[in-house]
Amino acid sequence: MIFQRTETFRGYVRLYPVTSLILALNVVVFLIDYVILDREWTFRGAFFQDPAFDRYGLTEPWRYVTSIALHGGWDHLLFNSFSILVFAPPLERLLGHLRYFVYYVLSGIGGNVLSAIVYADSGSISLGASGAIYGLFGAYLYIAVFRKFAMDEATRKTIYITLAFGLIYSLIVPRVNIWAHIGGALAGLALMALFVAVRGKRRRSVGR
């Protein structure tokens, strides 16, 4: 079971520095935004669409990225932070630190892209790391389905149950951006497929 965390605090930070940095960034940004700035960063950084003047949020494109580090409340922050704490480390170990960071950010952007397409005519404000987190699940789903030999049965079941629960949760809980979740998962799945293909090609080249 790859999601069991038994590391000490120092061991966790040493083994998973990018995940640790992401967790720290989320907490620090939230505290500054809520306690000091009265949500000024949320106003300036949340992903925003205007159906009349900015249907796809392209007028301020940085929001595709900044919104990933913002959260709407303590419950939102804690839920996402717990998910990152538990589920992110195996992927950072698999991809390497830099590739994992790029993967995380691109998954979050992917979630915002699909959300922008779906909500282009209605207008939308969204924020949070959920798209990036579902990108992690998308990567694990690819491995569970197409690379079964690389994942134990308990981990596969955990992935399936977590995704099923996440889908149900996204459907029944108000104000949850399910399309950002789906977009992040699809982006993560595609990125993992690309990673596997590139690594396989490199191995074949070395073996020649």
CATH topology: Rhomboid-like fold
The residue-averaged pLDDT reads 91
Shape: globular
Strand order of the largest sheet: 1-2
Secondary-structure arrangement, i.e. CATH architecture: Up-down Bundle
Query: So, the CATH homologous superfamily?
Result: Rhomboid-like
Q: Which structural category fits the helices and strands?
A: mainly alpha
Share of β-strand residues: under 5%
Query: What is the β-strand count?
Result: 2
Major sheet description = 2 strands, antiparallel
Write the H/E string, N to C.
HHHEHHHHEHHH
Low-pLDDT segments: none
CATH class: Mainly Alpha
Rg:
17 Å
Q: What is the terminal-to-terminal distance?
A: 35 Å
Number of domains: 1
Tell me roughly what share of residues is in helical segments: over 70%
Note the total helix count: 10
Describe what this molecule looks like in 3D.
There is one protein chain. The chain is mainly α. The protein has one domain: Rhomboid-like fold (Up-down Bundle). The protein has ten helices and two strands, in the order H-H-H-E-H-H-H-H-E-H-H-H. It has helices at 9-15, 17-36, 40-45, 63-66, 74-87, 89-95, 97-118, 130-146, 153-172, 178-207, and strands spanning 47-49, 124-126. The protein has a two-stranded antiparallel sheet with strand order 1-2. The longest helix is centred in the last third of the chain and has 30 residues, at 178-207. It is globular, with a radius of gyration of 17 Å. 38% of the residues are buried. The model has no long low-confidence stretch (mean pLDDT 91).
